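Ops channel
N.P.: pipeline sanity check, posting one input/output pair.
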């Protein structure tokens, strides 16, 4: 049986829509309407939040299929229908929101071409890194598992039920079963007709490198606040730091360039910066912070099972820091304890995934 749903130009167009249009349509549910935000920041936020929503939807959709040892092809059909419904709902939400905004429309600031000049080195640096990565990349040995698992899911219509190194049938790969990123790569391959190795190496790798700068751009935008004109310099320094940080096989920077499509690289270079963005929003009591943290917890496990304790530790440290800050500023214990509640709630999905992991590994 042909494992691909679509092939040729139609499959390529569908892949492009899934990676671009779907996140933009879904991102309106979580994007903020903060006053003073420029159009570029709103678009980046909308896209990243929408991408997290599509990842979280895939994780919640795929997990029952994995645990019940169901068909991968059936998972693709169910997820495709759900994604389409979310896109339609996102489009309707965007149209309704636009009608409300038109009634109280704020005058837009005139565009200044000079403000775009500092961004030219950022885009040139990113383009150079993408070109270097695509044509001179280091092939990582972990592909013998991750890409093989994606190919097995696509070709044999099973999920984490075969040893990726030998092909032998196993009960369930409990170590990796909760992290469904390889299955998402298989899904992209199934709907586009492109081999999973090509999807991972030649499409997702440049895509994730661009997202890395987008995530750190949001973080820098929050940290700089009234000095946002320094944001291009922040990203240039970030790019230089990443390009000179190959001091070990296990740094986040090394993962970004040698294992870009793997879950550990997605977690360390995309999830962690977004976690600090959302924690900053929570500290400043921005609307929707808890929803984004909850979604991020699900997406973290989507990338790697290690996120259960790594992101949990991050939330725990943030909760203690926030409690101390509130106690010092308000001189009362009750506000400090209350400040910890959102982070405790955000860690609940991690606790559930951790419990499932222990059950699977028994």
């Amino acid at each position: 049986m042909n494992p691909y749903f679509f092939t040729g130009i139609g499959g390529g167009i569908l892949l492009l829509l899934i990676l671009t249009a779907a996140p933009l349509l879904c991102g309106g549910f979580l994007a903020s309407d903060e006053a003073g935000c420029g159009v570029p920041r709103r678009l980046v936020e909308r896209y990243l939040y929408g991408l997290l929503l599509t990842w979280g939807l895939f994780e919640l959709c795929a997990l029952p299929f994995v645990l019940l040892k169901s068909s991968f092809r059936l998972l693709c059909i169910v997820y495709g229908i759900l994604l389409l419904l979310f896109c339609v709902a996102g489009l309707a939400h965007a149209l309704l929101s636009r009608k409300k905004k038109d009634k109280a429309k704020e005058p837009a600031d005139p565009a200044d071409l000079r403000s775009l000049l500092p961004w030219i080195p950022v885009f040139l640096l990113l383009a150079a890194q993408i070109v270097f990565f695509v044509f001179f990349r280091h092939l990582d040995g972990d592909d013998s598992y991750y890409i093989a698992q994606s190919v097995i899911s696509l070709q044999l219509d099973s999920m984490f039920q075969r040893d990726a190194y030998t092909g032998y049938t196993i009960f369930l790969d409990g170590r990796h079963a909760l992290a469904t990123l390889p299955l998402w790569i298989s899904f992209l391959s199934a709907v586009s007709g492109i081999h999973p190795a090509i999807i991972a190496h030649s499409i997702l790798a440049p895509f994730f490198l661009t997202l890395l700068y987008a995530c750190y751009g949001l973080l820098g935008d929050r940290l700089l606040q009234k000095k946002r004109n320094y944001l291009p310099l922040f990203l240039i320094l970030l790019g230089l730091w990443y390009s000179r940080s190959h001091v070990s096989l296990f740094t986040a920077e090394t993962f970004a360039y040698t294992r870009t499509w793997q879950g550990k690289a997605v977690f360390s270079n995309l999830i962690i910066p977004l976690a600090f963005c959302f924690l900053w929003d929570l500290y400043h009591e921005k609307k929707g912070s808890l929803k984004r943290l909850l979604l991020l917890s699900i997406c973290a496990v989507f990338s790697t099972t290690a996120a259960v304790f790594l992101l949990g530790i991050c939330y725990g440290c943030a909760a203690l820091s926030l409690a101390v800050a509130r106690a010092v500023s308000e001189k009362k214990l009750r506000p400090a304890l209350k400040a910890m509640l959102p982070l405790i709630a955000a860690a609940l999905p991690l606790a559930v995934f951790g419990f499932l992991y222990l059950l699977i590994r028994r």
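N.P.: looks fine end to end. The chain has a mean pLDDT of 87.
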